[in-house]
Amino acid sequence: MMYHKPVLLKESIDGLNIKPDGIYVDATFGGGGHAQEILNRLDTGRLIAFDQDEDALENDIDDERFMLLNQNFMYIKNFLKLYKAIPVDGILADLGISSHQIDTAERGFSTRLEGELDLRMNRKNQLTAQKIINDFSENQLATIFKKYGEVRNPYPMINAIVRQRKERPITSTTDLKEVIEPFAKKGKEHQFFARIFQALRIEVNQEMYALEKFLKSTYEVLKDGSRLVVISYHSLEDRLVKNYIKAGNFEGKIKKDFYGNPEVIFKSITRKPVTPSEEELERNPRSRSAKLRIAEKLSNNE
Prior knowledge:
- The chain is of the alpha/beta class.
- It has two domains: 9-99 and 207-297, Rossmann fold, CATH 3.40.50.150; 106-205, Putative methyltransferase TM0872, insert domain (DNA polymerase, domain 1, Orthogonal Bundle).
- It contains twelve helices and seven strands.
- Strands 3-2-1-4-5-7-6 form a seven-stranded mixed sheet, sandwiched between helices.
- Helix 6 packs across helix 9 (189-205).
């Protein structure tokens, strides 16, 4: 069951610079589209894939060169160590939510479908968007909406949420949209809903923390000269990826050694992020915000 049109498929897989006998990682397996293309280019090599969503296990690929782990990609180093797969020849991460997750109403990922206010990638986790909206303090909500939804003044909207939840809990995507709609600009309601849902999803899944942990691990598990390929979908993710590739940290400030030489750990292969072609956008409108960055790990003495 392929449920995800892989975004920037050729560009991302070409970017990995695949060696037929190499060990590769697909850190976000999803529908398996990227993974299948990596396997097509391998001979005796191996592919290890990660996905924390149990639904992704239905897309497991029957191939002795392939292993799918139902784990968050932030634990990449632990599991590659466990399976004696360090160092690897390339890592791919597509940070988008899958079409399956968006189209499954009860998961709550879609702003257009009626469903539970859930938003968990891993349904074993206790924290849901419903719990955040109904139980978090006004200040906690303000931090989430400002930081992850880039909402400048969320307090009027938060006051409306608090008033509503005192009367009855906000339990569905529709409940939440009804409360927050008055605070959206006319004609821009869907973009506003998308930002609020994004903020909740990032908090529920601790996405920024997981991404930072994952990126730090990539340097430790990659072979010198091998590639890191990341597709991101919003400015918060892209900034972390860009800064880490540029400077080896998340602030983007390049440190210098005693002699004034820049201490960098990756060479950026893409000067600007690669974005989908007109043809791809027509075929898959959900790819419109995708940005692809490719980096090569430098050896210690470069």
